[in-house]
Amino acid sequence: MLTLVKQEYFKAFKQNRMHIWLLAMFLFPILILGCFPDQRMETGILNLGQGLLLVNLLGIILTALFTSQEFTYGTIRPLLSRRFNRAAIFISKIIVIWSSFIGLFLADFLGTMMGKALFAPQFNMNLQYGDPTGNGWEVIFKTVGETMLQMIFIAGLVLLVVNLVKTSGAAVALGVVMVYGVPALTALSSFLIQQVPILKWGPLQVFLGIQNIGRLGGQPDLMYQALGLTVSQLVTAYCLYTLAIYAGAYWIFQRRSV
Question: What is the CA radius of gyration of the chain?
Fold first, then answer.
């Protein structure tokens, strides 16, 4: 397993230029805070220089590439010929994908702190802020946490689609729709739940809840009013859907021809 993980990291940096993406994520919030004075306040800094949108997009693209290129370039054949089983290969990919997300978040955070030091040294991270509530550090932690949960969910869908249709393009399109399109369905979702209550357990509704868990998690009454689910129900449904999606992706990966 360790050998597979090392090889995945080698491909990530050598083939997909991961170091360039990390550098871009570090520079992006510095550029935003430096060029746009209105971002040197709560909205810009606590959203990591608006870099979370880019982290989401890069996470989707890298997940699709990490999976599809294995078959595109035929590199899975030598792996299987060395008697690595597909379960180990699949798990090593998940490890590298999730750790890549963490790397992107870390680069974005460090860039934001650098931009804050250069352009907004007066901004106090220890003051209380809202939506989600907490001091600056707590707000960032909650925002990054809910974004990470979203990306884990989307990464599973991307893995599923890539293994199913054997192309990264469709998977990237699905991921983009999930990240940027689902929030637009909030009002429609609430209406449908009122008409058909069982829809509150649907995967899109659960994903929508996870997108807002940092803001609504500390307000259970408001969350139940918006989603029809308690925090524990939302987390349970999220975990079950995520496990099912990754299990489906692995099932297809296990049977895919090389």
Answer: 20
Tell me the two tokens of residue 103.
Answer: 């790397």
Query: What is the distance between the alpha carbons of residues 208 and 114, in angstroms, rounded to a whole number?
Result: 32
Burial class (CB in 10 A: 0-12, 13-18, 19+), 255: exposed
Residues facing 129 on adjacent strands:
134
For the whole model, what pTM was predicted?
Answer: 0.86
If the chain, 258 residues long, is cut into consecutive pieces of 10 residues, what is the mean pLDDT of each piece? 78 83 94 92 90 87 79 63 76 92 96 95 90 87 90 88 71 68 59 66 81 72 73 89 93 77
Distances (CA, A) of 3 to 8, 108, 144: 9, 29, 30
Handedness of CA 238, 240, 241, 244 (dihedral sign): positive
